[in-house]
C-alpha cells in the first residue's frame, strides 16, 4: 500500500503543464479582429483531401461541394493577405513506413498508417494548387497528430508574427480543425472558425461541429463575415470635411 502511495505522491509533485501563450489578463478571446494581427490557419489543404485522385477526396467531396469551401478559402486567403494579415499553411505527412505516426494503432491515425495516407514526398501530401503557399505566407512543420500545435512550430511562428486572432479553416471540421480550435482557445488566442471553409466526411458531422462545439471554443462565422471583418469600415458622409 505504501508503494502505491509513493507513486501517487510522485505524480502529484510534478503535474503536466500546458502553458498559455497569453496570460489570463492578456487573453484575446472575443476581441475585435485586427487584420495585421490575424492569421488564416489553413489545415491540410493537400491533394489527399482536396483533389480527384486523393485517397480521401471521395469521403469529403460532398461536404466540400455543398459549402464550396475550396473556392471560399482561396478568396479568404487573398483577403487576409490584402488586409495585412498572414496565411499559415499546416500540412500533415508521414514517412512511408508510418514510423513517425504517433497513434498508428488507434482511431483516425490508425487509418492513416493502414492506408498509407499523406505519405511525404508524394503528390498526395502536396498542397493543392488552389491553396499553394504564396510569397509572404508561413508554412508550419511537424504536424503528425490531430491538433496543429503539439510537436509543430505553429505557436512559435504565430508569436513571431505578432498574431492574436486565428481564423481556422480546413480538414476535417470535427477532427483536426476542432482539435486545433480547442488548444488555440486554451492558449488565449482569439479563435474564429470559418464554418463554410471547412469540410469533413459527412454533412451531419460538419453540422454537429459548426453548430455545436465550435461555439463553445470560438466565434463561428462564414467566409463572407470573416472577409467583412478584415475590411475597414466604409466612410460615411459625416467623415467628409466640409469646405
Molecular structure report:
The chain has 243 residues and is α/β, with parallel strands linked by helices. It has one domain (28-231): Isochorismatase-like (Rossmann fold, 3-Layer(aba) Sandwich). The protein contains nine helices and six strands, in the order H-E-H-H-H-E-H-E-H-E-H-E-H-E-H. Strands 3-2-1-4-5-6 form a six-stranded parallel beta sheet, sandwiched between helices. Helix 5 (107-114) links the parallel strand 2 (86-90) and strand 3. The longest helix has 15 residues, at 69-83.
Topology at a glance:
Blueprint: H1 2-13, E1 38-43, H2 47-50, H3 57-67, H4 69-83, E2 86-90, H5 107-114, E3 138-139, H6 154-160, E4 165-171, H7 173-186, E5 190-199, H8 203-217, E6 219-221, H9 223-230
Parallel strand pairs: 1-2, 1-4, 2-3, 4-5, 5-6
Helix pairs in contact: 4-9, 7-8
Brief overview:
The chain has helices at 2-13, 47-50, 57-67, 69-83, 107-114, 154-160, 173-186, 203-217, 223-230; strands spanning 38-43, 86-90, 138-139, 165-171, 190-199, 219-221.
Protein traits:
single chain; 243 residues; alpha/beta; Rossmann fold; six-stranded parallel beta sheet; 9 helices; globular; disordered N terminus
Number of helices: 9
β-sheet strand percentage: 5-15%
Q: Which homologous superfamily in CATH is the superfamily? A: Isochorismatase-like
| Outline | globular
Amino acid at each position: 500500500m505504501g508503494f502505491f502511495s509513493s507513486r501517487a505522491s510522485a505524480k502529484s509533485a510534478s503535474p503536466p503543464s500546458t502553458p498559455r501563450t497569453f496570460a489570463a489578463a492578456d487573453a484575446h478571446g472575443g476581441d475585435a479582429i485586427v487584420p495585421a494581427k490575424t492569421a488564416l490557419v489553413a489545415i491540410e489543404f493537400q491533394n489527399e483531401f482536396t483533389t480527384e485522385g486523393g485517397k480521401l477526396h471521395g469521403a469529403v467531396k460532398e461536404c466540400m461541394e455543398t459549402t464550396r469551401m475550396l473556392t471560399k478559402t482561396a478568396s479568404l486567403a487573398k483577403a487576409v493577405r490584402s488586409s495585412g494579415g498572414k496565411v499559415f499553411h499546416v500540412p500533415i505527412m508521414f514517412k512511408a513506413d508510418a514510423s513517425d505516426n504517433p497513434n498508428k494503432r488507434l482511431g483516425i491515425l490508425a487509418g492513416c498508417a493502414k492506408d498509407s495516407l499523406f505519405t511525404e514526398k508524394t503528390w498526395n501530401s502536396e498542397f493543392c494548387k488552389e491553396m499553394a503557399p504564396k510569397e509572404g505566407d508561413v508554412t508550419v512543420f511537424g504536424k503528425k497528430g490531430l491538433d496543429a500545435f503539439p510537436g509543430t512550430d505553429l505557436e512559435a511562428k504565430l508569436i513571431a508574427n505578432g498574431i492574436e486572432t486565428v481564423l481556422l479553416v480546413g480538414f476535417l471540421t470535427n477532427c483536426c480543425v476542432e482539435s486545433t480550435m480547442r488548444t488555440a482557445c486554451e492558449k488565449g488566442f482569439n479563435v474564429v472558425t470559418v464554418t463554410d471553409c471547412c469540410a469533413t466526411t459527412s454533412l451531419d458531422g460538419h453540422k454537429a461541429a459548426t453548430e455545436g462545439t465550435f461555439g463553445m471554443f470560438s466565434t463561428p462565422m462564414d467566409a463572407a463575415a470573416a472577409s467583412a471583418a478584415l475590411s475597414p469600415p466604409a466612410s460615411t458622409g459625416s467623415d467628409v470635411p466640409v469646405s
